[in-house]
# Entry
Amino acid sequence: MKNIWDDRNQKIDKQKILTDKSIINITKKQYDNKIRSISITETIFAFFSFIFSAFVLINYAKLNTWYLATSGIIVVLFLIIVPILSMKWIRALRYLDITRNTFKQSLFEYVKGKQKFINFIKTSSYLTIPFIMAFVLTAEKIFNDNNLIAENDFGVYWYVLPLGIIIQILINKWILIKYKKTINEAENILKELEQ
Amino acid sequence: MATKEFIRDLKENEGIIYKVSGVYCNTIEDQKDLYQEIVYQLWKSYKSFKGESKISTWIYRIALNTSISYLKKEKRKGNQITIDSILSNRMEQIDTIMDERISLLYEHIKKLSIVEKGIILLHLEGKNYDEIASITGFSKTNIGTRLSRIKLKLKSQLIK
# Structure
């Protein structure tokens, strides 16, 4: 096995891949690409969430009962905390401390990060229904000056709530399909690291 | 000045990047992609290299760590970039000189777990237990136990 590998090494060493120009090109291209990928994927969702939460805060005075004020706070907190945490987990996975960490530490941090991220998506999905309820209550008051609770007008929930339930079911199904393999792999790696 | 040193060190050790990316990727396209990512990460981290270890040890560490965050295909979709054409041609040239025995060995190494791949690669590269331990973070005894297990696994795969 070692002989085959050494023989191969000699061939690889003879065939130089990198030139000064290609090194400069690679570092420049990869750097540009990092900037692009961060700005597109991570900021769009956060941007709209922050805009709407700012809008709710500007119109907060319109939420003139304790339950409307509470629902406004729930909406704002959800729209601020979820994108921040989501960006935090994604960045933690993307930017492991590869200079200081050993292979074992990096692997451990990566796997733990994956598990935390999946748990975070799951938890967020459970909050979809309370969020939708608070969102409708808040939006109706701010946009239409309509206090759904005082006027006993819950008609809108007849189609909004089933929609919320469907969204939650879909997110959970998606997690199960998309991350089932990842969850199993993560568990196996952790077991292996502990051996 | 630092760029010159970086280029010199990188060119002297470029085989390491080729081998690490080869072990952790299943297709030549993925390998090229990971290869470029490792070069980028080395360039980014070069300032932090204080010469406390051999440059090759440091390159192995960065290359293996980069491979971890690069394992998932879906993660790479958003990060695809045009492969440098010179690099691409040269990597394909090397690929054509891969004979049957080494392809078979690579095939079996690729079936190992992430941890095992890293350890066997360092062992085949002639690193001693001390060096493997400092790169991977496992104890020397643990490396010994793992290596025996990996060798047994590879032997049984090769016999089949």
About this structure: Chain A has a mean pLDDT of 82.
